Amino acid sequence: MNKVIDMHAHFFPEEVPDFAAEFGSSGWPSVEHVSSESANIMIDGKLFRPITYACWNSRKRLRDMDELGIDIQIICATPVLFAYHRPVEQALTLAKWLNDKAIEICQPEPARLKALCQVPLQDIGAACEEVSRCMQNGHVGVQIGNHVGLKNLDDEGIERFLHHCADIGAPVLVHPWDMMAPERMPNYMLPWLVAMPAETQLSILSLILSGGFERLPRSLKICFAHGGGSFPYLLGRVDNAWKHRDIVRKDCPHLPSSYVDRFYVDSAVFHSDALSLLVKTMGSERVMLGSDYPFPLGEQVIGELVKTHPELSEPVKSRILANNAAEFFNL
User: Fold this and answer.
1) Summary count for the chain: helices (H), strands (E)
2) Helices 88-106 and 58-68 sit at what angle, rounded to 10 degrees?
3) So which residues are the signal peptide here (predicted)?
């Protein structure tokens, strides 16, 4: 039986300190419990998202892992907690509290539950200090959002943070958040269905077309969530633009598709044809199992898409289900 490592799963603490009162500002997420097994994430008294106790209860998480045959799961905070728009002192307070809470959630079975940390990415010095602290304290990497306000991943400061992560051996998971054009997508979860894949493609192309991957060391381990969003499907369009428009290639010395060996993606694409394209585009050594557990938009039977895929060989399935993540996260 294949070993299984789920490298993209989320947590949300059972209780969150009253940061609104502590800092005298609005917009901080809080938890409103509905029952012993369900709660709502609230922001300024309005529902942001319903969640279940799988978000904070390690025993429930481990039971689900046992039922689904998951050997190891790597957890990270829900992106609504990034707080990149806050003063750095406030964001750092939240990050340290969350990072310690993540380790606490992993404590019942630390060999099976691993954590990614969070950093105040709006202040590169503080972010570098916190990721260094966390890597010493047992975290296996760091999760960052795909942008900080108007700054994409090719921002000089964010590139400096990524270089620091490479220097200290901290793998990076890039997660889309704060999606574009919400005023045009008020219904049907369209920001998650339309803007989120676009945000991920934007973050990948920001590093490729700006020459970011030319400046960053090859030792950087960086993964983009949700199968790279719309990137794999539209890579041919990007290559075509690079060939025929000088404004596309002015900072990018090589064909965009030549950079797929510089990053990883997870497998959360939910369709066998999409997974086939993803593996063909990225190479089987660059795709890792990621479920987005425990949210409704995640893979409900974790690993099923890979395990039952009619075209992938058993060695390829083994790489995607566990081997790639074991290498990426030094497990």
Assistant:
1) 14, 11
2) 60
3) none
Each residue's pLDDT tens digit, 175-188: 999 999 999 999 99
CATH 3.20.20.140 correct for 5-9+54-328: yes
Give the CA distances from residue 224 to residues 20, 36, 37, 143, 236, in Å, rounded to whole numbers and listed in that order: 31, 34, 31, 10, 19
Task: Give the phi and the psi of residue 14 in degrees, each rounded to 5.
Answer: -65, -35
The answer to whether residues 118 and 96 touch, using CB atoms and an 8 Å cutoff, is no
β-bridge pairing 46-52 and 141-145? unpaired
Of 175, 179, 206, 208, whose CA–CA distance to 194 is shortest? 179
Using DSSP bridges, classify how beta strands 38-43 and 141-145 pair: parallel, antiparallel or unpaired.
unpaired
Residue 97 near residue 130 (C-beta atoms within 8 A) = no
**What distance in Å separates the CA atoms of residue 226 and residue 236, rounded to the nearest whole number?**
19
Which of these, 325, 310, 217, 216, lies nearest to 267 by C-alpha position? 325
Q: Which residue type, as a one-letter code, is found at position 182?
A: P
Q: Which pair of tokens denotes residue 180?
A: 């574009």
pLDDT in tens, 229-274: 999 999 999 999 999 999 999 999 999 999 999 999 999 999 999 9
CA dist 243 and 257 (Å) reads 12
62-78 average pLDDT score:
97
